[in-house]
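Pasting as-is:
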Amino acid sequence: MAGQIDSKKRLNSLFPPSMHSGKFANLTLLDRREKIIEVCTESQDICDFPTYDFVIDMYNSWSGWVYHFIIETFPRIIPFLDGLLADDEMPSFAIRWGVPLKPWHRSIIEILGLRSHPKVTNLGSETVFAKQVICPSNWFGMSPWLNYWNIMSARSYVENRLGAPDMETHSRMKTVVVIVRDASRRNDANVFSSLFLEQLSEALKATHNVTTFRSSDEVLMSCFECQVRVFQTADVIIGSHGAGLAHLMFAKKEATVVERVDPGRHSDIFSKLSFMTGLKHFPINKDATWEEYRDIIEYSEK
């Protein structure tokens, strides 16, 4: 069964006593599981689960969080995609992402070309029956190093699908993108405030345009391709330690990253991600002034 079983409670939710008219209610949980698998194997017509010949199970216990889905989950399917989608004889298959799919999940799936592909069914966390299941290696350790090749493959895959951004449509001025978490549990709008943005913009006005990437921007947040484009065209990226910086995997090489951190509390995952993708990474104290951000930007471009 393509379902994650990590506790007695979880097992009971996957194979409740009421299934199959309660015929297996008196069996133990594990015996009930084996009996239901036996029934579904013998006849898919009487199986209480949706059935598939082939399922790729992408389950990751943290896939409901943006950082983990971008860095740890979706890159793991990239090495399979060209072969799966290019083979005319490949039967239809399902991808079980392992979490209830929210709009932002679907936007990422769309950029991979999987959302409307005729061969592919995208599943959330529902339990299904499959004759064959592939479970790509599941690394969870926060560090991008553990998913290095998949991340770099995902970066190239997305770049190839979208094509290079049309830089002619962008100003000859350099672009500074400030990630403002004004609609999240780690709100930092008081840090990257209107005054901060005005002061930084004024100081850099001869060479840079300062723009924002806001979590409150519903249109932007619903379009993963739009988010990727922002990072592909940014020369400088400023943001607090957090999920927004996962987009660094799509930033153009040699871009400058200024990561606002709490010393001793935040990990080095984004410095590693920056190194992997050829970016210039500068950590900065959470209480730094706008002048210090300006100084780092000017230093990085000497």
